[in-house]
Amino acid sequence: MGATPAGTVTCDHCGRANRVPAAAAGTPRCGNCHSPLAWITEAGDADFAEVAEQAKPYVLVDLWATWCGPCRTVGPALERVAHELAGRVKLVKVDIDRNPRLAQRFQVQAVPTLLLLDGGEVVSRRTGAAPAAALREWVEESLAVRR
Questions:
Q1: Taking all residues of the chain, what is their mean pLDDT, rounded to a whole number?
Q2: Which residue out of 14, 30, 33, 68 is catalytically annotated?
Q3: pLDDT score for 5
Q4: Taking burial as the number of CB atoms within 10 A of a residue's CB, which of 36, 40, 95, 124 is the most buried?
Q5: Per-residue model confidence (pLDDT) at position 72
Q6: Any residues with CB less than 8 A from the CB of 32 and at least 6 apart, and which?
Q7: Which of 14, 30, 33, 71 is catalytic?
Q8: Cis amide linkage into residue 131, ω under 30° from 0
Q9: Catalytic status, residue 30
């Protein structure tokens, strides 16, 4: 498989910018203070297996569309959750209009559709926008059941 692009994430603890690849073994940590980093990336039909299904820790998948108003609202809330749960979840965003095979595979009927994956297996699913606190509660409850 080809190299996946890296993004830049600012450490929430020390403020240092870090390059974080879309796919990698383990979980990203700050090169300066070694704190867990928020792992937020995009994936599509071609690289979803590498970016999301093979990832550890758990993967929170945001199946969204550019024309969807609630999707634009839930996006920042999901990023906040990814920062709050750094080291425990990876946020992977999928534009369903550009990646129709994934939309079909996960039977997306409405957007945003949120999935929580463990080793590529869907362990929880939610449709619709919600505030960050409610999304975090959903993710944490889903994780608690898996332990």
A1: 94
A2: 68
A3: 63
A4: 40
A5: 95
A6: 11, 14, 16, 18
A7: 71
A8: no
A9: no
DSSP string for 64-126 = E-TT-HHHHHHHHHHHHHHHHTTTTEEEEEEETTT-HHHHHHTT--SSSEEEEEETTEEEEEE
Which of 22, 31, 20, 9 has the alpha carbon at shortest distance from 83?
A: 9
Cα-to-chain-centroid distance, residue 69? 19
- C-beta of residue 92 within 8 angstroms of C-beta of residue 61: yes
Q: Identify residue 145 by its one-letter amino acid code.
A: V
Question: First-to-last CA distance in the chain?
Answer: 32
- Residue-wise pLDDT for 34-53, tens only, equals 999 999 999 999 999 999 99
Determine phi and psi for 69, rounding to 5 degrees: -60, -50
According to the 3-state scheme, what is the secondary structure of 45-70?
CCCHHHHHHCCCCEEEEEEECCCCHH
User: Is residue 68 annotated as part of the catalytic site, yes or no?
Assistant: yes
Helix (H) or strand (E) holding 143: helix 132-146
Confidence of residue 147 (pLDDT cuts 50, 70, 90): low
